[in-house]
């Protein structure tokens, strides 16, 4: 297993203890996440797997600071997310987490450059700096010649790379990818997964949520959810790697 | 620094707003139309109200600027019965002119409706029997010929000075000076043509004929009883005289002359042009307020349209809101984004409404010959007010958007 040297004082990137999340549906309380305790270290590439209804999405929303736990502890970069206000959670999402979605979630009729620059608006950067950083990230994704293209003029793979550039533009600690290849064909899926592999090699922590075993093979660690609990947490054997 | 960030953030939001408004162009146009009509109605109402003010003010200015008016009827303002026995005569006028300081001239008058005719034509007009003081007090002069003179008054001459409207109706383009005209069947000689005074508030200031006071006293049909009774007296004061003081002097003198004791109703009424201005100012302000209030209803409807469309926009863009929240937008960022969008939409509507209002007001001024001025404050105010409407009616949708749960917003289709 490849690991980044840990500084003694640096807390793990992600630590959950007895994490629970209840939902009330039609007057009935459903426990979507029922006591999850795990640690993700800096630089790891983790695949979270499970069938729909297994609690993996609810877990992902909580570690993405999009949702708050019902009980238990959730530490991201040593910060207890349960104690934060909505504005503070927004800042965490902005600075520490980069989201990649299945449907790309790019703003229509908005150029690739402006899409990538959007998180920087909420980081409070001025326009010139936003544009400079967004252009650099797009160039790093091999889209330097597509800055002015709107999403409609880009292929699925290109759109997902724009979305990844957007996730990376605030230099977050963790990429949180929810079924990032769900809307892509096999060849493009492999291309995107290799990209995640390269980014991970460069040091960023990647947490990937998927239900496809093939895709999970790109990660180094596999966590399987069932009925709101972790039923398996093991290193990936026969890992697929970037060429 | 903070302000700079706020401004920069606002600018970003304007960009986002314009993109969003372009996306649903037809809907944006229709919504802006609602605000446009509202702003148009309000501006026009203000313009017409201002026009009424200007018009009334010019009517009063036409009377003469620094002037007191005396009417021979009980002063209603002081609890009199109104229309009761009134008293006013030539001797009062002479006494006022003689003993009150600052009086330039007096204009004793007898007024009556008169019928004028030449062969084949007949018109009705307002007859005013005057002394030469009338021209001085009311700033009236002739364009052609001469005014009524002292000699005319002394000899009760059958001479007349015509207003432009009367002259036009009787003689057309022909110069009326020197012509003969019958007033209530008695032949008069036209000695002068008054300079045009135009119309104000729909009243034609040129629809008058002037005759000597003494002649009017013989010929006019009035309800006056005494041999030197008057139906009206204008008193012109020097511009330096304070009218309130002038009025007090006149009232004191007349009360003495008619032996009006303390607490008794005086048989005359004194008003000043200043009072007319104040009164008409109040009246036109109320008139304008009523107009604007009615017009505001359409602006309210436009505002409700804004709220409606912003609610639709928020619902349609729930996913975008969720995404922005995931990317780090705080609640206030989302709220401001939608507030700016609705303000921009309203300001576009307001601007269109202003442009249309200016065109409509100009057209109205030409067609109706009624002033409808739109000042810079109204123009700027209407745009700012439109933005305010946007903020007010966009407020609820914007707050609703900002309160969405990021996770539910992201999950929506």
Walk me through what this model shows.
The complex is a heterodimer of chains A (243) and B (413). By secondary structure, chain A is of the alpha/beta class. Chain A has one domain: 3-Layer(aba) Sandwich (Rossmann fold). Chain A contains 7 helices and 10 strands. Chain A has helices spanning 56-63, 86-96, 112-122, 127-140, 156-168, 186-201, 213-216; strands at 14-25, 28-40, 45-50, 71-76, 79-80, 97-100, 174-178, 205-209, 221-226, 229-235. In chain A, strand 4 (71-76) and strand 5 form a beta hairpin. The relative contact order of chain A is 0.18. Chain B has 413 residues and is an alpha+beta fold. Chain B folds into 2 domains: 11-59 and 279-411, no CATH class; 73-267, no CATH class. Chain B is 57% helix and 17% strand. Chain B is built from 13 helices and 12 strands. Chain B has helices at residues 2-23, 25-63, 90-99, 133-138, 150-155, 164-171, 213-219, 243-257, 273-316, 318-326, 331-368, 376-402, 406-411; strands at residues 67-71, 103-118, 121-130, 142-145, 159-162, 180-183, 186-194, 199-200, 203-204, 208-212, 232-237, 269-272. In chain B, the strands form 2 sheets. Chain B has a 6-stranded mixed barrel.
The tally of strands of chain B reads 12
- Largest sheet properties of chain B: 6 strands, mixed, barrel
List the domain count of chain A as a whole number: 1
CATH superfamily of chain A: P-loop containing nucleotide triphosphate hydrolases
Number of helices of chain B: 13
Domain module count of chain B: 2
Radius of gyration of chain A: 18 Å
Distance between the termini of chain B: 39 Å
Overall 3D form of chain A = globular
Order of helices and strands of chain B: HHEHEEHEHEHEEEEEHEHEHHHHH
What percentage of amino acids of chain B are in beta strands?
Answer: 15-25%
Strand order of the largest sheet of chain B: 2-3-10-5-7-6
Low-confidence stretches of chain B: 79-83
Task: Provide mean pLDDT of chain A, rounded.
Answer: 92
Describe the global form of chain B.
Answer: elongated
Strand content of chain A: 25-35%
CATH class of chain A: Alpha Beta
